[in-house]
Amino acid sequence: MTEDNEQKLINRINELYHKKKSSDLTAAEEDERKKLHQEFIKNFRAGFKQDVENLVIIDKNGKEITSEKAKKAQRQKGLRKD
Questions:
Q1: What one-character-per-residue DSSP string does 15-39 give?
Q2: Residues 68-79: pLDDT tens digits?
Q3: Residue 64 DSSP SS3
């Protein structure tokens, strides 16, 4: 998802949130709000997972201590050659 699309998603979620605070949402708007919220959470989790999988951890002595699970994911993505 591009930043522009993500911002539009957030803006629409916020519009529905503010409308819900001031008055009731229609059934269609409530369904839309739920779907947008689920999409936002899905995108957030995917981005967070990618950030964690790309993380390389180095201790204070300069030795890499990245978990084996993260290393495996990085190898599958072609980010590691070891």
A1: HHHHHHHHSPPPHHHHHHHHHHHHH
A2: 988 998 999 998
A3: strand
**How many CA atoms does the CB half-sphere of 41 hold within 13 Å?**
6
From CA 25, how far away is CA 18, in angstroms rounded?
A: 10
Distance CA 17, CA 36 (A): 11
- Going from the C-alpha of 59 to that of each of 27, 43, 51, 63, 80, the distances in angstroms are 53, 31, 19, 5, 19
Measured between alpha carbons, how far is 41 from 28 in angstroms, rounded to an integer? 20
Report the alpha-carbon distance of residue 50 to residue 53 in Å, rounded.
5
Q: Contact at 8 Å (CB) between 77 and 53?
A: yes
Question: For residue 32, is pLDDT > 90?
Answer: yes
